[in-house]
User: Fold these one by one.
Assistant:
Number 1:
Amino acid sequence: MLRNSLLLVVALAGCGSDPVLVETVPPTDVAMTVQSAPVTVPVAPSDSVVLNPAPTPDIAETPPQAIYATYTLRRGETLAHFARWSDVPVETIAEASGLDLAGTYPVGTEIRIPVEDADQEAIIDARREDHREDRVLGYLASRGGTIGTGFVAVRTGETATSIARDNQAIPVWLLEAYNPSVDLEHLKPGDELMIPVLADVVVDAQPSE
């Protein structure tokens, strides 16, 4: 690199001295440039860095499935009875059963009652049975009580109504109460039915004085 200037300085060191050439180098007007080395910032893999996590969509909770207790109506039973036994409004029972609240329903009509669990269903069963027993005992007391039970065999052409009428003129619902597992609407010849023997129809074998 050529130097831009040479400064020739003549220095006299006393008289008669030979001139001395002194070469000086002026300060270099060169700007010092410092180049910074590139800085590398480590970045975690894209699958491990979540800058703006997407909001988790709301997941609709699945409503619990309704539980129903199913019954078939017996003679003398109404929706009002089941409403009282279950503590469920009669309107709710009618809606769940697909029935008109103002309608009349034949024996064997299926009804459904929404319940919370098996314990509530057991309470309904117990109250229903208590009602049946109270009704039977009340009727029997009105006839002087019973002295036992007997059996009759169904003959061709007989119905529950005719059997009840021909056997101490008891109501059909009482015959049903004594035979809860028998479908009285579909009796067949040879079927056996239990009946109470009422005290007011028993003839005293001893002659009266």
Number 2:
Amino acid sequence: MITEESLRAIEELGIEIDHDVAFGGKSKGNQHLRRSAALARYLAQKVGANVAVAVAGSWLHDTALPSGNDYDYDTNKEIVLALLRDIDMSQHDREAAAECVASHEGTVAPKSLEAQVVHDVDVLEKAGILGIIRHTWKLTNSGKIDAKNVTSVDCDTVCDHVAWRQRQLRTDEARRLSAIVSAPLLDDTVVMAIVKLSAKRASQGVITEKIAQELQSVIPHRAYSVLRYQLNQDYLKGESL
């Protein structure tokens, strides 16, 4: 059993790595992990998964980012097991949380219901316009997109990744939520504007949520409303758009 005290320690650990270590501290202040934890709690309850394990996995799912290879199953698992060594929890729960993290990028099929939840949580955070912003941010700060020379190939790479993640969803409830927060149809010009602005501001260390605010003058009103709805997680409260 994972206690609330242990979960708080895990939360602090995950946020410290995400804000202060990953990408040289450029992502400090972003709310991705907090939204992920809320999504994990909601989704785990809906599908009957172990809530504490899923929430722990969601707080830790990006801890391999500083390694430069968060897609590697074994690397992810080793990093999490090492991080959890001094946290008061059973070895079984350490292994369960590590499994959630190891398979969250979809490169390996999740081996538990809790791992499916954490995988789907990260996919939902990569849905719609938020997904375009977040993946552009990641690629820019990984040196894979040149913020000064964004190309149509860059846009295709980002959009193809977001679409691929959506196809990997594991639970019916996540598929339902994905349909709610997916972006309204956007033409290539709008997508290019989103990626250009996101890349430029990402290279300057501006976090996702602030980039999203700046998109208000760039994207259609309906699309911006869906983006804000997703960021505020009002869809989890049953509130209509």
Number 3:
Amino acid sequence: MSWSGINGKGYTLSKMKYHSRMFLVTSLGKGFGAGGSAIVCPNEEIREKILFLGVPLMFTSPVEPATLGAIIGSAKIHLDKEIVEKQQQHELLMNYFYTNAKLLDLPIVNYTHTPIALVATGTPEMTNEIGDTLYKNKIHATGAIYPAVPYHNSGVRIMITLYQTINNIDFLLDVLHKAFKTAYKKRDLNNEKILRHFKLGTK
């Protein structure tokens, strides 16, 4: 949602047409910037069935007023040309991050330009060390570690958002580059040894 596609409809719908038997379920958090989720139904009959028969199968609560206000505000942006400007600005930041990460030879798992990049660390211990360095430099990132992923497929998830600037990204890349140089030297590691577990290559 939001970061790609006309009116922020997302990558999937930007590549295919909506089918009458398809259900689209999407988050209104993350890129949309609010909370909750949305289900796009093929017709009114299906919508009512979900509404009346689905309640016993789920546990949730109504969206609180503040979140509802954020949803409405974000929806207005998505229906306005402002979404195009935000997508273009976001694309520039993503391009800058991935281009310079490649120049620094960081172990990015996949260089496809998406807002979330996984920097491979190999093991949870390595993830904790890199993550601790980021934290000490006041950079927020989340780790992907076992058992959420296979043991040797751990990594640090870097999120590119519109709240960042080119200077922020430069600082992030510099901290990551130095952290990996230190960690590699300590463990006699390199990109190839870590990325081989992902079976995706180094670029």
Number 4:
Amino acid sequence: MSDRHLVKSKNVLVMEIVGTAFIIFLGSALHFTNALSGNQPLVAFFSAVNEAVWEHLKLAFWPSLLWVLIEFYPLRKMTNNFLPAKAIGTYVMVVFIPIVFYSYTPFTGRSVFQIDITTFVVAVVIGQVVSYKLMQKKKPPKFANIISIIALILLTVLFVVFTFFPPHLSPFQDPNTGQYGI
């Protein structure tokens, strides 16, 4: 491995470590921003509006998407497949959380705060590690960038729409109130 490649790899690793802290910090803050805003509809787009599993996925998604935008310019030329790696990493975060939640709650009969927080942190770490590892792989076909952008836009639209018009399914229901969405 060349010295130049090592420097690039180190820079990418540093950005992903900083991104992990950024996503965890901002995601944790977003749990409270809707209530602190007085339930403003604009804030509801990116904040958890209730205790539903779906709403808590926003805490990983929105900071992750923001981090993708922040690191796009500096990393796009340092990596082989920035957009596919970040899209997959973001999806890993959003999929990991409900898998763990719905795996442990049948045994506990309820949500356990400490497990949920740990799950969020682990999901972010795994998503960032997956992104980092994929950025090291060989360059994908051009259409991979287009698919990645479409995948991130799709998830963005779903989070916005389902905040205000959630399906009446378990992941969208607040277990405390029985309500859906706002």
